[in-house]
Amino acid sequence: MSLLEVRNLRVTFATETGEVQAVRGVSFTLGHERLGIVGESGSGKTMTGRSVLRLVRPPGRIEADAMTFDGRDLLHASEREMRALRGKRIGMVMQDPKYSLNPVMTIGRQLTEGLRLRDGLGRSDATAKAIAALEAVQIRDAARVMEAYPHELSGGMGQRVMIAMMLIPEPDLLIADEPTSALDVTVQAEVLSILDGLVRDRGMGLIFISHDLRLVARFCDRVLVMHKGLVVEEIEAAHLMEAQHPYTKGLLNCLPRIGGSRAPLPVLDRAGF
């Protein structure tokens, strides 16, 4: 049974010069698996992820033939019903922790706020659960990090805090928007290992949004390739390097190769896409 079903999703923004279609008829299903969404900046990847949580605000408009999560209609759910789903059952890790974490609140306060207000936990229980979540994403000295402010953390540490924050409610679906883009290779591997374990051990569904085709091919189960708001190709991740669509081939040809030519990298030819 599918955890998430999206059929003919459209996201439109009203502007002074007319309507702009950011997402144009995207359809996919997600089970308890790792689904990658790749494409250039502006291809509609993030808008697709935010639409699932109904986080596109006016002048943006979300329309779809169907968008259901675990049998529940997301399109017609009230805002109160959506607030009950956000975080609790569907989490989203934003791209850059510098813009997602509150700069004037300690990490501990941000991690425990939802536990105290939403779940009614006392201070000590909420703190214990937050520390356990930090330790689960391999943060050493979690008690010290609880007292820190976001600017006192490295990029990799901040990203792990964001993942811990989303995982505290143990969601059934996690949308990860470029969760490793600002991390070095070593930290990136650790974050991916954490996400992989959550899908494998908890049976969580994961939507992994990224620019990095090689990373997605190695980490995900299936891949959607987006261009100008459309899904131009859907392929098993293991076969991504054998993609047939000209746009996907163009993206792959632009990748640098160890031991390859030192000539300038090819530029994607968008003619005909």
What does this structure look like?
This protein has a domain at 104-168. The protein is 35% helix and 25% strand. It has helices spanning 45-52, 79-85, 97-100, 107-117, 123-136, 142-146, 155-167, 185-202, 213-219, 246-253; strands spanning 4-15, 18-30, 34-38, 60-63, 66-69, 72-73, 90-93, 173-177, 205-210, 222-227, 230-236. The strands form 2 sheets. A 6-stranded mixed sheet has the order 7-8-9-3-10-11, with helices on both faces. Strands 1, 2, 4, 5 and 6 form a 5-stranded antiparallel sheet that branches. The relative contact order is 0.16. The mean pLDDT is 88.
- The 3D shape can be described as globular
Our measurement of the CA-to-CA distance between the termini, rounded to an integer number of angstroms, reads 34 Å
Which whole number gives the mean pLDDT? 88
Instruction: Work out the number of β strands.
Output: 11
Can you give the helix content as a percent range? 25-40%
Q: What strand line-up does the widest sheet have?
A: 7-8-9-3-10-11
Biggest sheet, in brief? 6 strands, mixed
Rg (C-alpha, Å) = 19 Å
| Beta-strand content estimate | 15-25%
Uncertain residue ranges: none
Give the helix tally. 10
Please state the structural category. Answer: alpha/beta
What are the secondary-structure elements, in order, as H or E?
Answer: EEEHEEEHEHHHHHEHEHEEH
